[in-house]
Amino acid sequence: MSAAGPSRTSPRKPDAREPDARERCAREPDARERDGGQAHAGQAYEGQAQAGQADLRQPDARRPDARQPEPCWPDARQPDPLDATWQSVDQLISDQPEPDAALTAPETSAAPPVGPTRSSAPLSYGPPRRSAPPSTYEPTPPSPQPGFVQQPPRPRLAKQYPPPSSYEPTPPPSSYEPPQAPQPGFAQHPPSPGPVQPSPPHARVSPQPQPQPGPEPGSVPTPGPEEPAARVVPVPTLGAPFHSGPKPPLYAPEPLELPAVRQDPSAALTPDMVVDGAGYGALTVRAASVRGDSHRYQGEPRQDSLAVVRLGAPGADGLLLLAVADGVGSAARSHTGSQEACRLAAMELDSVSAELSEALSGGDRSRFAVLVDTAVGRVATLLAHRAREHGDDPAAYATTLRALIVPLDPRVRTRGFLAVGDGGTALLRAGAWNLSLTDPEHDGDGMIDTRTAALPHGHRARAQLLGPALPGDVLVLCTDGLSTPLAGDAGMRDFLGSGWGTGAVPAPADFLWQLQYRVKSYDDDRTAVVLWEAAP
Fold first, then answer.
1. Is-contact 289 319, C-beta < 8 A?
2. Strand order in 401-407's β-sheet?
3. How far is it, in rounded angstroms, from Cα 278 to Cα 285?
4. 148-162 b/e with 16+ CB inside 10 Å = b?
5. Structure confidence at residue 151 (pLDDT)
6. Disulfide check for 287: which of 80, 167, 317, 529 has CB 3.0–4.6 Å away?
7. What are phi and psi of 223, to 5 degrees?
8. Burial class (CB in 10 A: 0-12, 13-18, 19+), 197
9. Which secondary-structure segment (H or E) carries 319?
10. What average pLDDT does range 319-330 have in this prediction?
């Protein structure tokens, strides 16, 4: 309802000549308190002509047209009691954050507003509202003021751990010279900053660059306290295998083309080279087999195989089987025949391991020969049966077999030997080679004999006992890929004699590298199992 509307006690409209109620309220701040409810003075009745006849300050309740006091609008300068209500409504409707009352100054208008108004900047009760900081809140550093030098932040002190009590720094070698410039393998770090001296606030200094202390000339860069220096240590490499003569062979000494799975899965799954080893008390074994240069060049599989197997029950009566097999090059599946020959020989000899141990302990050569010949005959039969199962001719599995049977009992110094076909067995004792240890007919001439017996058609084994073994002996069992160049090249004998006959057993990787010593015109697969005899 409008503020100038009719009164509830009078049905008539107010006269236009009457002063506005809002102006009268402005002149008279509180008429009800001062006069106790004064009637309107501008509206007089006909019986009251004189002003003194009636007391306008005391209205007559008997008069029917006596008017009640008009409601007065509150003064705009006084606080509006509805401000708190308007503030709560504005906060619910508005999406903007409430401005800070301390930073927002109220705007003053030239003329006072008419009627109640809602303030454009509502009052804030209680602490000012602030938006919550984000989860990854990081304080924004203050921008530097012109003419002032911003001090760098204090460095964080890293937690230092004391070195162990047994730590001793390794002194540099006597020939070491410190580098004059940073080396490519070292990451040079700037020196850690010292403690920063605090300066008084707003200290006006000239903006000049602060010099940073650098490393002294000729000093070795040292790692920082938090991050170790990245060091590149040169790793020793053996490189390409050595060779005999002034020039190496034409073939590259590395794996080349491999067989395809669709052509022959067993050939494709045959590794280019293998290395193995074992150690039993005073006995140390190293074994390796490498595909020849000709097979690598033609993409053919490695046809040699080896085995380092323990026979018999656990205990001192056990035996160690060292075997090598050389597949005949003209046989289509000789790589499978050599692998099967080693596997079947281990199974058949293990079945008679107790009898073999007794024969070796007693030095009974005849009994040993019978046991070995029987086992080799069963290997030939099973190998031919395997070929027929796969629809192949047994001749396609043609392979040689050569093995050493060594007792694990250190008191037994006799070693058993068996062979089907060619190969080599050599003894390196006190730096001298004995290449005719088991094959006196060849006498170490280095000639290749293509007329050789092979499994499965050749099922008779040559057997003999070797010994007694002495501490420091090196017994070499190999295929003709090593025995032939070893007999025909003095450079190979000197090289392997220096590597194997010095008393120290080479590591498996070193042994593999040494076995690949190259000699021209000898490009066949090369396989060797070497036994080092130490003092019991």
1. no
2. 304-311, 319-326, 401-407, 415-420, 462-466
3. 5
4. eeeeeeeeeeeeeee
5. 57
6. 529
7. -70, 155
8. exposed
9. strand 319-326
10. 96
DSSP string covering 93-127, please? H--SPPPPTTTPPPPPPSSPPSS----SS----SS
User: What's the pTM value of the predicted model, to 2 decimals?
Assistant: 0.59
Order of strands, sheet of 432-434, starting from the edge strand that comes earlier in the sequence: 273-280, 283-290, 526-533, 474-478, 424-429, 432-434
Name the pLDDT band for 89 (thresholds 50, 70, 90).
low
Per the listing, tokens 């090289």 go with 495
Q: Quick check: 33 and 69 in contact, CB under 8 A?
A: no
Query: 3-class DSSP state for residue 360?
Result: helix
- Averaged pLDDT score across all residues of the chain: 74
At 503, the pLDDT band (50, 70, 90 cuts) reads confident
Q: How far apart are CA 415 and CA 470, in angstroms?
A: 11
Q: E strands within 164-282?
A: 273-280
Question: What digits encode the pLDDT tens for the residues 300-312?
Answer: 999 999 999 999 9
Q: Any idea which residue has 């058949």 for tokens?
A: 348
Q: Which two tokens stand for residue 415?
A: 């070693």
Q: How far is CA 202 from the centre of its chain?
A: 50
Reported confidence tier of residue 231, pLDDT bands at 50, 70, 90: confident
> What per-residue confidence (pLDDT) applies to 78?
60
Q: What percent of the chain has pLDDT over 90?
A: 47
Chain segment 129-166, per-residue pLDDT in tens: 555 544 444 445 555 555 545 555 555 544 444 444 44
Classify 35 as helix, strand or coil: helix
AA identity, residue 8: R
**Amino acid occupying residue 263:** Q
pLDDT over 70 (residue 474): yes
Task: Report the alpha-carbon distance of residue 444 to residue 441 in Å, rounded.
Answer: 9
Q: Identify the helix (H) or strand (E) that includes residue 481.
A: helix 480-488
For residue 456, whether the previous peptide bond is cis, meaning omega lies within 30 degrees of 0, is yes
Q: What is the 3-state secondary structure (H, E, C) of 119-157?
A: CCCCCCCCCCCCCCCCCCCCCCCCCCCCCCCCCCCCCCC
Contact 15, 67 (CB under 8 A): no
Beta-carbon contacts of residue 376 (< 8 Å; ≥ 6 apart) = 345, 348, 401, 418, 420, 455, 459, 460, 461
